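Q: Could you fold this chain for me?
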Amino acid sequence: MARITKSWGTAALAVVALALSSCANSGNGADTSAGGDEITVAVAGLPTSYDLDGSWGASNENYTVWSKTHAGLLKYADTEQNGVNVQDFTEFEGMLADTDEPYTVSEDGQTYTFNLREDVVSQAGNPFTAEDVYWSIDRKLNVSGGRLPQIADYFYSADQMEVIDEHTIAFHLDGVSNEDVFLPMLTGHNGFIFDKTELLEHATEDDPWAVEWAAQNSGWGYGPYVVDSITDDQQLILKSNADYVLGEPAIKTVTQQVVPDSGTRAQLLSAGDVDVAEGLSPNDLSAIEDDPNVQIPTVENTIEFLVLALVQNKEPFDDKLVRQAFNYAIPYEEIIEQVYQGYANPSSGWFTPTMGVPDLSTEPAYVSDINQAKALLAEAGKPSVDVTLSVPNNAPDVVDTALLIASHASDAGFNVQVDQLSSADFATGRAEQTLESLISPSRVQIQVPAFVNNFFLPADPSNSGAFEPTEEWDSLMKQAIDAGPSTSEEAAPYWQQVSDFINDDASHLPILYRQPNQAYSRSLDGMSYRFDNTVDYSVLTLVDE
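A: Sure. Below is the predicted structure, expressed as structure tokens.
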């Protein structure tokens, strides 16, 4: 088992270059001397924890190691789009659950009984049973920093689980949810299942869930890869799991090499020294997009976005007319073309086609219209408005977006000061709701309208506290939920009304959706776009020469 060391500094570029030269071979980075089943990936950094429950840290590096070393009861069905494997967030297939009939649902829709696979062992070699499922969910509900309490309105107690036999477990929803949220909750990071036997071997009286050990040690999941070794600040090596439930991956070894600079990662890919480059800036994607040796995934609908929060309980955004005016004063197309080099799409609001709501409008929530912005400010009796727009200074695209907004919005009468905060100060200001307005990058991993509304709007004030629910909003939400699954024709009109209400409120909205930020060598097949925007190494294959 690999162990994460405690120092997480930046590797020197000279060391990186030396390491890469030892990994690369003639032309495409794949280790043909070992049978052509190894790849090298340029990444910005290494994970800080192997345990998403006990030491949550929302970074691409953590997302990647979690997704590659763990598995859940279910997975989203795959479909192909523009040569990219994308996930259908409305279709569920068995993973640790049986592939033919993963679950059954009671007549009242309140009990889901999962049929578990009987041929599964963990990375530690222990047989998989219903007790692992029960214990894993119980752990999520009890560990500080765990993921399930975040959506406890839908699933709140281990008492809702019933172990029927060694390979059957039932979930009783007790009237708090339906498959709109319940099934997606078990499909992404929230629902990863762990090897109870292995973790209990490392539990202590003070740490009954083995949180401290799991954060720094791997090998207790069911995912496609195990962490073979880690060199502090330099590289992490993943080895394929021969017992993976979906079959051992074609790529047997993945070497993640730390290359801190996005431009350097792109150059290494273009030169054939690595097979995949992750976390590339829009400018660096644009610089290599015409390279015949490089392929860049693009999809029709993405789940990552920049969100603008205009906090209602602070001037000047306590006036809806001012909020609407500011949204009209944003130069959307210029941001997409100049900051994101075309690797972004206009936003229709919180609900996107990936959620499967029938006939949902895809028209932009707002378009740039300086005259309309001026008119709304005049109607509000505020022809000139001072605004402090806060952004994290470690996100260049967000800073550039804010500066472009400030320049453009001045024509409408907004005097915008862009306040570039450290990531720590920005996070504190957002959590404590001291900021007047802010832009931050985010993503929706559970593609369900009810979850999006509850998580990003009123239920989690750390997301900014910009939106203040009203009786009308509560009524619209209830009607939409009571109408049935959000993918049904009956519920769709109600969700459109909810979307229209949020757009009109203009306090908390995605202003654009970002395309994937990875690039691949053309020596690989199997580009992917996942719920967490990580590269799925398990579906990659090497192209036959």
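A (continued): Confidence is low (pLDDT under 50) at residues 4-19, 21-35.
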